[in-house]
Task: structure prediction
Amino acid sequence: MFISHNKTMKIFIKRYSALLFVSFALLLLISSCQKHDPDVIVRGESKIKFVNATQTETEQEVYVDDQIVPNTALAFGGNTDYFKAASGNRNIKYAGSSGISTQLSFNFTPSITYSAFLVADRSGNREILTYEDNLGTTGQNMAKIRLINLTPYYTTGINVSLLAGTQFVNALLYKESTNYFSVDTGVALRYTVVGGGTIKTIAATELEAGKIYTIWFSGTTAATIEAHIVMNN
Result:
C-alpha cells in the first residue's frame, strides 16, 4: 500500500507530539512529588561564646537546647570558651541562681562564629544579644579589636581613643558594636563617657600581637565605667 509523503509526515508529527505530552506529564508528576520543605536548613556546625554582662545576679548557667554549656555558672564579666553547636534554629538559655531564666531562639549559620551576651536594661529586664565574630587573620605586630557598649546608663555614649589622642570611636551607644579595628600593639587606649570627666585606660600590655579581642563596657556612672576584654582566638 502506498502512503504519501505528506501523510507520513502527519503520522510522525502526531506520534512526536504524543511523546512530548507524555514526557511533560511525567516531569510534572516528578516535580509534584519533590515538595519543597521550607523548614529544611543547611546543616553544619557553628561556634558561640557566652558572656554574662548583667550585674543583677552572682552567676548564670548557660544551656543550648537544654544541654548545659561546660564551665558555667558565669559570674558577672565571665565568659565561656567557644561552644560548638549544630547549625540551624537553637534555643539559648541563661539560668540565674534566683531561678529567673532568659531565653532566645536563634538561627545559627554554618561555619559562623558568634558571641552571646546576657544584658539588662535600667529596669532589670534581660535579653540576650548576639554578635557575629570575625576571626580572620591580623596584621603583623597588630591586634584586632571591636568594642561594644553593654550598659544602658550612658545616654550620651562612650568615646574611645588612642592614648596619643586620636579618637576612633565616637558616642558608642547601648547595644552598639563597632567594626573590627587593627591597632598597633604597645599603644594604650583610653575611654570615657561622653561629657563625663573620668578617663580610664586599657594598658598597652593588655593587647597582644596577632590576637583578636572583644572589648565591652559596663558601668552605671561616668566614674564606674569599666572595660572588659574577651580574647576571641
Notes: The two ends are 87 Å apart (CA to CA). Residues 1-41 have pLDDT under 50 and may be disordered. Residues 5-33 form the longest helix (29 residues). The domain at 38-133 is CATH 2.60.40.2890 (Immunoglobulin-like).
